[in-house]
Amino acid sequence: MEILQKADAIRRKRQETLGLADAILSAAFIKMFGDPGENSREFNITPLGEIADVRSGVTKGRKFGSKGTVEVPYLRVANVQDGYLNLSEIKTIEVLPDDIEKYRLKDGDVLMTEEGDPDKLGRGCIWRSEVKGCIHQNHVFRVRPDRSRLAPEYLAALLRTQYAKEYFLRCAKRTSNLASVNSTQVKAFPIPEPPLTLQQMFVSAVGQWEQIHRRLTDGLAESKRLFQGIIQQAFTGELTAAWEAAHADEISAEQAQRERLPQLVLLDFVRERQRRRPSEPVLITSLMKYAFLLQKEGTTGQTFYYFVPYKYGPFARELYQDLEALAAEGFISVTESDEERTEIALDPSKETTVQEVIAQLPESLRADVMRILEPYGSLSHNQLLATVYAKYPAFATMSRLRRQRSS
User: CA angle at residue 279 from 275 to 284, to 5 degrees?
Assistant: First the structure.
């Protein structure tokens, strides 16, 4: 059925985008620190156990006899994924009261798995106090970095590199299809130790990435629920060809409205930006930054484009397609004044029509456009780029301007 195919396409697209977000963080790590396996920047190499406290967790199935116990939530291997936590199911365990403080997780702890599939061995992520009073199982290592030397975000990203995976595979003990490492091997993991100031720059980038990752993860979960719901309707007979045909106009209108929203947002940005700085053209690079800031700092949480680091910061190729559509309708003109400068302007003869079209935007999105232009719309082109680079350094790693200034 067509509606099922569309729902599946949305689900797959969001899954691909989530993978792209992971690739962006990995690229930012390599850009800042280089390949840890080569250590071309000659950072000091320090065993993890010298700059972090590594501990195993509570053992299941202990016998307590008449001793009083308490029941608390705990993390299992299944909860610790490669770069994120899966908290969809949190189990509880009986422990002695003294065990709570001994095994309690603290914000910023890095969690690593002791055993699992060989390709997932040593996977890790950061604990952000998501579950109050939570402890961890003995098959999950808790690594508490000395923050005066090692940032948790840097360590977690390092654990996701090929360098870390190869280390743990080399020293792992294998049984059938599983592999395991012990605390001695974890403590011996050689850490390239960059200056803390450089690590803190990466921490800022990770914070921005986590916001994006949460939004994408929520969007993917919503798409999966939608897809599963439609499948269930199809199998129970609720979603029939007759039903789809009867609602074809509604489905088509809903899809058209979703596809139209990003174009209307761009149109509103161009119009409002021209009002604020009528003597200056709206450059496509500036418009790209406004759309990026809308997704980062707006209140609706909608994702229209998938930005990647490029030569002038955040870049989304799909935005060009929406500008072409608006130009084809005659709302805007797109003029390339030279190879590096593209100007966008509203057609003055279409002012009334533009107002009517923009009126189709939901009030929440219109408010977000104003919210972004209030602090950023008065900035010059160069000031806008400098501000975005400073606030979102993960998207400035490929910046041509930044390289020119540093050379």
Answer: 75
C-alpha–C-alpha distance, residues 55 and 103, integer Å = 9
Domain boundaries, the chain: 1-43+196-246, 44-193, 249-406
Q: List pLDDT tens digits, range 327-374.
A: 998 999 888 876 668 899 888 888 888 888 888 888 888 899 999 999
Distance, CA of 357 to CA of 355 (rounded, Å): 5
**Terminal-residue alpha carbon distance, the chain:** 56
CATH architecture for residues 44-193: Alpha-Beta Complex (3.90)
* Residues 202-225 pLDDT 10s: 887 676 656 555 555 555 556 556
Q: Could you tell me if residue 237 is left (phi over 0), alpha (psi between -120 and 50 degrees) or otherwise beta?
A: left
> What crossing angle do the helices spanning 318-328 and 284-297 adopt, rounded to 10°?
120
Longest Cα–Cα distance of the chain, Å, equals 86
In whole angstroms, give the CA distance from residue 341 to residue 375.
23
Show the tokens assigned to 38.
Answer: 């080569």
Entry pTM: 0.54
Q: Which residues of 355-379 are buried (b: 16+ CB within 10 A; e: fewer)?
A: eebbeebeeebbebbeebbeebbeb
CATH topology of domain 249-406: Arc Repressor Mutant, subunit A (1.10.10)
Q: Which H/E stretch holds residue 383?
A: helix 381-391
What's phi and psi for 191, nearest 5 deg?
-100, 115
